[in-house]
Amino acid sequence: MEQFPPAIIGIAEIHEAIAATRPDQECLIFRDKRLTWGDVTTRTRQLANYFASQGLGCHRERSEIDGWESGQDHLAIYLHNGNEYLESMLGAWKARIAPFNVNYRYVAEELEYLLRDSNAAACVVHSRFAPLLAEVRSKLPNLRVIVQVPDSSDNPLLDGAVWYEEAIAQSSTDKPEAGYSGDDLYILYTGGTTGMPKGVLWRNADAVVECFGGSKEARTIDQFVAEAVGTLRTLPSPPFMHGAGHWTALRTWLSGGTVIVQSQPDRLDPDDIWGLIEQERANFLLIVGDAFARPLLDGLAANNSRDLTSLLTILSGGAPLSAHLKVEFLQYLPWVMMVDGLGSSEAGGQLSQVAAVDNASTGTFPWAPQNHILSEDLTRVLEAGHEELGWLAKSGRLALGYLNDEAKTKKTYPVVAGIRYVVPGDRARLTADMIIELHGRDSVTINSGGEKIFAEEVEAAVKAHPSVYDCVVAGRPSDRWGNEVVAIVRLKDGFTPDEKALLAEAENHVARYKLPKKFVFVPTIVRSPAGKADYRWAKQTAIDAG
Question: Hey, where are the domains in the chain?
Fold first, then answer.
C-alpha cells in the first residue's frame, strides 16, 4: 500500500478556528442573506449532524486503503451557486463525508454515469434539477439521502427527500461526534470535455495547501489563524461546480475573508457582477478565461460609470486568457493586478503570471517551486533550456489518485527516481531564463501531416484578430493530412467572415503548418458553464461542416 506524508490540518477544523476569532464578521453574502462566520459554523454543524443522523460518514480510515479507494460516503452537490453549495461542502467534511461536484448541465445518461461512478450515497439538489434526478434515481441503489433546495422552479419535494432548511432546523448545533480529519476526502470530478469524467481524490488537508491556497508553512491551528487577515472580499464568478470557483471561495475563507455570490447564478450576467463589485466593495474577482472575459469586458464598455475602485485583483483560472483581453481589462481598470493562473484537478494550483499593458502574453509563466518538466517517456526531469518538448509535472503534496482506477492513477502519478509526480497532460518547455512555455493539453492535440499541433495555440492565434469573439479549434479526418485543423469561430456583432484576414493574423503567432485548413463560422461556441471548451462538440461541428 502506497504511503503518503501525514496530513496536516483539515478545512473544517481551520474554518471553525478562524470563526472563533470573528464570529460576527461577514462570511458569506448571497442576495438578501448576510451570513456571519458564527452563522456558517452553526449551520454547517447542523447539516453535518443531519447527515450523521442518516447513517452517513466514514467507515474505513485512510490508512487502511489505497490511494484510489474511498472509505467514506460521498455527497453529490447538484446546485447552482449559493450559500447552500459552500455550506454543503463544509458540512460534508464536518460529517466525515466526501463532497463532490456535479455538472448541472448533464443530461440523464451523463448524470446517471456520474452518480454511479461516484457511488453517491447522498445528494443536495436544487429543485429545478429534481425531475432529472428522479428520472435516474431507480438506477442508483446507493443514493439514500436527498436534501432539496427550493428555487424559482417551485418543483415539489422529491419522495423521501427533506427540504434543506428543515434538515438544518431539526439538527443539533453541537460539534459533530465524528470529529474532523484532514485525511478525509475532497473529490473533484474532471470536466469530461475530452473523455468521461473521473473523480480525483484529495485528502482535504492537502487540498487546503495545494488547491485552496492555504499557507504552505503553517503546521498548527494557531499558524493558520494568524494567516487569516480578513481583508479579502471575493466574488467568484464561475459556477462552484467548477474547481476554480470553489477553490477561490475556500481560499477566501482560509484568509478570514468574505465570499460574495452573484445574484444571478444560473448565467454570467455582467451587470450583476460589476454591480455587486461596486455595491459590496469586492476587491477580488475570479473569472475563467476568454469565455468570461469577453462578456465582462462588453459589460464594462456598455457602462463604465460604476465605482470599481475597490477591485484590486482579477484572477483568471481554469482556461486560457488571451493577452489582448488582459490588456483590455487594464485599459478600463489600470490599477488592477491582472493574474493568469494555471492549475488542474489532478495537480491543484501550479503557476501564475501577472500581466501589464506593455507586457502581456498567453501561455507563458515564470517557474515556481514544485513544478518540473518530465521527459516524453517520463523517465527523467529535464533541465532548464532543454529543446525536447516534455510534460509539465508537479511534486509535493498531491492528490491520492482517481476513484476506483488504479491503472489511471499510476499513469498520471508516476514515480521518477523515487519522487512521486503528477502529470495532468500539458506539454511544455522550461526556457534557460526559467519561463515555462505551455503548449497545450495532449488530449486535444491534432496530429496533422506528421506534426503535433496544440489546439490552444491555434485558438489564441485566431482570437488575436479584432473581429473574433470566441474560437475553438479541433481536428477532423483528412485524406491528405491524416487530420486537418479546423477553427470554429464566433465573430463579434457587425463583422462578416474574412478567412484571409484571420489567416494573416494567425500567421503572426504560429507557424504556417499550424494554421487552420478550414474556418467554420457559428453563432455561438458550446462551452461548459465554467467556460471550458467542449472539444467533442467542436470535433463533430468540424466534421459536419464538410
Answer: 11-258, 363-441, 449-544
pTM recorded for the entire structure: 0.88
Look at the domain 11-258 and name its fold. Answer: Rossmann fold (3.40.50)
What number does CATH give the domain 363-441? Answer: 2.30.38.10
Query: For residue range 280-331, what is the model confidence (pLDDT) as tens digits?
Result: 999 999 999 888 999 999 999 999 899 999 999 999 988 788 888 999 999 9
> Who's near 190: CB < 8 A, 6+ residues apart?
197, 198, 200, 345, 346
Q: Give the orientation angle of helix 243-254 with respect to helix 83-94, to 10 degrees.
A: 70
Are 410 and 373 in contact by the 8 Å Cβ rule? The answer is no
Helix (H/G/I), strand (E/B), else coil: 544: helix
CATH (residue range 449-544): 3.30.300.30
Strands (E), 302-410: 313-316, 337-344, 348-355, 364-366, 371-374, 390-394, 401-402
* Own/partner pairs, 296-300, CB within 8 angstroms, 24+ separation: 296/237, 296/268, 296/270, 297/325, 297/328, 297/329, 297/332, 298/270, 299/270, 299/271, 299/273, 299/274, 300/270, 300/274, 300/332, 300/333
- Helix/strand/coil percentages in the chain, nearest 5: 30, 25, 40
**Can you read off the three cell numbers belonging to residue 19?**
470563526
Nine cell digits for residue 143? 443514493
pLDDT tens digits for 472-515? 999 998 877 888 999 999 999 999 999 999 999 999 988 888 99
**Strand 337-344 and strand 348-355: pairing?**
antiparallel
Quickly count: other Cβ atoms within 10 Å of residue 251's Cβ: 23
User: Does residue 208 sit in helix, strand or coil?
Assistant: helix
Q: What is the pLDDT of residues 430-454, one digit of tens each?
A: 999 999 998 877 778 888 877 778 8
Helices of type H across 54-107: 83-94
Three-state SS at 535: helix
